[in-house]
Amino acid sequence: xxxxxxxxxxxxxxxxxxxxxxxxxxxxxxxxxxxxxxxxxxxxxxxxxxxxxxxxxxxxxxxxxxxxxxxxxxxxxxxxxxxxxxxxxxxxxxxxxxxxxxxxxxxxxxxxxxxxxxxxxxxxxxxxxxxxxxxxxxxxxxxxxxxxxxxxxxxxxxxxxxxxxxxxxxxxxxxxxxxxxxxxxxxxxxxxxxxxxxxxxxxxxxxxxxxxxxxxxxxxxxxxxxxxxxxxxxxxxxxxxxxxxxxxxxxxxxxxxxxxxxxxxxxxxxxxxxxxxxxxxxxxxxxxxxxxxxxxxxxxxxxxxxxxxxxxxxxxxxxxxxxxxxxxxxxxxxxxxxxxxxxxxxxxxxxxxxxxxxxxxxxxxxxxxxxxxxxxxxxxxxxxxxxxxxxxxxxxxxxxxxxxxxxxxxxxxxxxxxxxxxxxxxxxxxxxxxxxxxxxxxx
Length: 443
Fold this sequence. Notes:
Blueprint: H1 2-35, H2 39-104, H3 107-110, H4 114-128, E1 132-136, E2 141-144, E3 149-151, H5 156-162, E4 167-168, E5 172-173, E6 180-189, E7 195-204, H6 206-213, E8 222-226, E9 232-234, H7 238-242, H8 247-250, H9 258-267, E10 273-279, E11 282-291, E12 296-303, H10 304-307, H11 309-356, H12 371-397, H13 413-442
Antiparallel strand pairs: 1-2, 1-7, 2-3, 4-6, 5-6, 6-7, 8-9, 8-12, 10-11, 11-12
Helix pairs in contact: 2-11, 11-12, 12-13
């Protein structure tokens, strides 16, 4: 087995080498392709890359800072709305209790004699719009304005009221008619201030939901209320109330509710805050606040995509601005490069092409003092020197040996050659003259 392993290792090594060679070849091809670009394109590309990097960094920083500020604003706004909504419900409940306390303070009610209480209670139940008003003695026996009786001794709202605390129950099934209702209860005090009984009022469970339904966050948002156990007691979907929907119980069969459970855990602590959760396939955002005087918590919720749409819009706008800015800068840089680099170099190329075919009757117009201008000046000097040498050669070819050739440096081979040629021609001319004179004298 060791031998087989040793034999396989070179194959992996060869594969790594082949991959490295492939990547190297690809990089080399891209580099060669880049080298084939014109100088204007190279400069514009380099400039654009630098701007893209700078603009991207600036855009990311701008987006982060702006989105953070906007998110904080949304959080604060949502939380304030949740607190305001909780106060509205609190005000409704306080009014509910206050009305009951006012009825319980009536002399007829304080007598705890049904014959004296009934007429007053019937009048008040119609005025206040309750389903029924109930007189409960301290043992829990209740008598209602609709003629029914029931044992309410095990109801928490009765126990609290009998202990001297006015309160409102969660939605529950009525012992009078079996319907889902809500009940409020306050103590009835006798002439000496002692508690002699309890006055309770029964209302339709939708009363609270109808109130909460008017409280919204965003276009498609809604409000809901849960009790200390996480059970929904107010919701736009009435089935949540009639079925006593509880996310802590439902999560066992629906794991997607875990994030909702975490939100409800925070809500039932009586704290205020905000959070995100998944519900029915949508990511939602909720702000919540406790309802004072109860163990309830109210939440305002809406789809996150709706509430945070301004953040996404801002991101798109930043990207759009960066893209437009880059396009403008690229076009501007191309024009600048064309004027400052491409056009002068194109002129030099045209001049060089003419010189290459022997045309020295060319001139370079230059009014620039930058490096390109210096290059054009150097080219002009080359043309002037080449033109002088061409004129010298032309005169020499016509037999004029009295040509003055200026040598620009020790490296000026052509000028040296022309000077040597003129010296040689002058010597030949002198020798020819001497021979001619000698021949004439000999005759």
